[in-house]
Amino acid sequence: MTPEFEEVNQTVFEKKFNLLNRVKPEYSYSEEGKKIRVLIDDSKEGEGIKTELEKVKKQRTYSKEEISEMVETPSKFWNTDLLDLDDFGKRVAELGIYKPKFYPFISPYKSEWIPGIAIEDVVNGTRLLSIENEEQLESLKQVFETAKAKKESEIVFKDEILDIHKIQPIIDIAEKQLKQPKTPVVSPKEDQNKEVKKVLIIKENTEIEEYVENIEVIKDADYRLSEISNLSKGIQLKKHQKEGVAWLQTLSKKPYNLPGVLLADDMGLGKTIQVLYFMEWYFQNGNTKPNLVIAPVSLLENWEQEHKKFFNDSDIEIKLLWGSNVRNYVHVNDKELTIKSLSSPGLYLTTYETLRRHQIPFAMVNWGIVALDEAQRVKTPGTLVTNAAKALKAHFKIAMTGTPVENSLVDLWCIMDFCNPGLLLDARSFTKEYVKPLNDANTDFETHSKNLRGKIGEAFMRRMKVDVAKDLPTITPIENRAHAQQMPIEQYKAYINELRNIEEIKKSGNSGAAILQGILNLKSISDHPLLKTDDLATLEIKEVVSSSAKLMKTIALIEEINERKEKVIVFTDNKKMQRVLRRVFLEIYNINVAVINGDTPSSSNSVNLKNGKLSRQQEVDKFQNQIGFNIIVMSPIAAGFGLNITGANHVIHYTRHWNPAKENQATDRAYRIGQTKPVHVYYPMAIAPNEELKTFDIILNKLLENKSQLASNTLFPSQQIEIKNDEFLDAFSIKN
């Protein structure tokens, strides 16, 4: 590493600088007959240019590992003594040591500290599975012990696949936390605080209102669209999209000048094109500040593709700001060059992980528009990524999400605190006013939601598909989606045997893990009775199909789709079932079907290309580009957001999700703006001979129907809609 000076012959200076191990007060050389002197200011002892040059002398070279770490964790290498708080926005309080903060899950029923399992992957980001009570903890223990006995590497808990090696510490902490729900338990790893690094400490607005921007509640504003002329041929904004763009344009300028807004349109209504149109208009009106989109890595390709698709002759240059590309813009300890590199006009596309790692340089830039796609990634107060997003300086901020409330109304508070700090008070006051009343069974949720919406005003926009139905094709009504098939005798026998096991467990007074495992077994048998055996791989395809009522019905449905020469998405979260479907479709239709799940690469980087692996977006493009009939198999979790698959107009939910909101999100991959054909949705269901009892599929379908209306309520926590174990138990019985 060598220092660089402007207006100095760098080659000559470098030779002079490298001669001694100490820093000289002056370096001189001759050039074109003139003597050049470089004076080193040492007037400030312990700081200033001489001190920094001595640091360079101390370590001139870096190993590959250190360079890699510099890229991965640049905050460890930024010399914070070179930075000043004036380099950042007013919300940044200091550069300090990050200490994890703990916030409770606040449910409509109680408010206390609940242990959970944090799950991170590149496709879905960070999710938290709560362990709400001793019964759920006992379920986790039982599944864990069973998997250990079978020497399995993974377990399934709450429909998530978890690494078995990470479970024991989680169980230990959960046991302690459930015994002391009023105070948080710190894990040993967090307690050790091994890695000390300075990050941006912001005014969080959690306990008190420390930072406020424009908190005027806007109502009845006059929105008028300012059009641009470079939309691509054949691209037209729908009526609701024009209203959305006009809303963004109006609130971002005088007389309103809001700091930001939450665009919470239902999935599939075109949030991306609205924001891109707004950015084009912003740039064309002389605003040359750089714009920033932060999104899950799996969606960055889609943003780039959509911009190319929607606009002709755009003057906005797309700049990828993640992975190895970051080093083209972020220059460690060179503040001026970094700010200059990132301040060049353009649309920068980055990830939440990149923002977290490079929060210091990102926060020094004066951004024009900052948009958070899938903004529920910043729903948790006090996390590094949440604070890094809130530390950004921007003229106008947009949070984009179809699910603004997942765990609790605190999610909405945290997202709005990014958009418009102070509008919803501090987190403590907000919880008292809007969350705790939900503990009272007499609280009218509709009225409560209306009051909260009134507090936010027009800084929040939400349109549902029912609101813009004329811009969408028809979709199969919920009551017409079930397609029943009677179970073959062997499948029915397996089902009855498992049902009897559950009856015995209920009679014995046992509950928890054994009941949960029984329900999961019924679910598996309903999908295919041989999923938990090794027999499937040795059976002929004809026998594989004929063994399962649901698979027989699925093939019958796909035969009709094939005759129409149309495309179909088949959803199941069971990886073994995904492999079975892939094999069946290959042999019957001679199609090498793509399977998109958590293992599918989220981006088309060089490593994946070298290994011959296509990204999620590339798999979708390949599927849609084939003319006529085609099939794709997807996990509803991995495909739950961001993917546009309007090339398919048939959706089969082979394995139903416990949560109707999650299932709707999966359907929305096909049922969205851009779809030109009627969308057909199917629920293949395994039923008993002569319908002598209600099977798992029948019961789950009814429970999901009952909760489907709640799934459309914006301000109802989507996790509260999920079907619970005890809701199943009373419905299961064997006819005498």
TrEMBL record:
Against CDD domains, the record matches this protein to:
SF2_C_SNF
Which InterPro entries does the annotation name? Helicase_ATP-bd, Helicase_C-like, P-loop_NTPase, SNF2-like_sf, SNF2/RAD54-like_C, SNF2_N, SNF2_RAD54_helicase_repair
Q: Could you name the domain of life of the organism this protein comes from?
A: Bacteria
Q: What is this protein called?
A: Helicase SNF2
Keyword Chaperone belongs to the record: no
Question: What high-level taxonomic lineage is stated for the organism?
Answer: Bacteria, Pseudomonadati, Bacteroidota, Flavobacteriia, Flavobacteriales
One Pfam family cited in the UniProt record for this chain: Helicase_C
Q: Does the keyword Hydrolase apply?
A: yes
For this protein, the record's PROSITE patterns field holds: HELICASE_ATP_BIND_1 (PS51192), HELICASE_CTER (PS51194)
User: Which species does the entry assign this protein to?
Assistant: Polaribacter butkevichii
Which keywords are on file for this protein? Hydrolase
Q: Where is the Helicase C-terminal domain positioned along the sequence?
A: 553-729
Give residue ranges for domain Helicase ATP-binding: 252-422
Gene Ontology MF terms in the entry: ATP binding; hydrolase activity
